[in-house]
Write a structure and sequence with these properties.
By secondary structure, the chain is α/β, with parallel strands linked by helices. It has 4 helices and 4 strands; from the N terminus they run E-H-E-H-E-H-E-H. The protein has a 4-stranded parallel β-sheet, with helices on both faces. The radius of gyration is 12 Å and the shape is globular.
Length: about 90
């Protein structure tokens, strides 16, 4: 299995970035697979190069809109699997 990649918006607050990184770390500990974070601006600038073939990509983004489509297309071009947004109820439990 490849990595799990969490895509999120850069919130402009270093404390918020730490929250996302902590979420990734907890997921990595629980699931036993590598979990990395990628900011949405990196997906916009790098496209498919933001992901590796075999990655599982999840979005910590609103469930609708252009950004979600951008992530899905970049993941597809990279040979990664975009499984959609992380439900808020799941992130609240982690």
């Amino acid at each position: 299995m490849g990595r799990i990649v969490i895509v999120y918006h850069e919130p402009g607050d270093p404390a918020s970035v730490k929250l996302v990184e902590d979420l990734a770390s907890r997921l990595e500990d629980r699931l036993g697979v590598r979990v990395v974070t990628v900011q949405m601006k990196d997906v916009e600038s790098r496209g498919a190069k933001a992901f590796n073939s075999g990655d599982t990509v999840v979005s910590l983004l609103p469930a609708r809109g252009g950004h979600l489509h951008t992530v899905a297309e970049a993941a597809k071009r990279a040979g990664a699997k975009h499984v959609g947004p992380i439900p808020p109820s799941l992130t609240a439990r982690l």
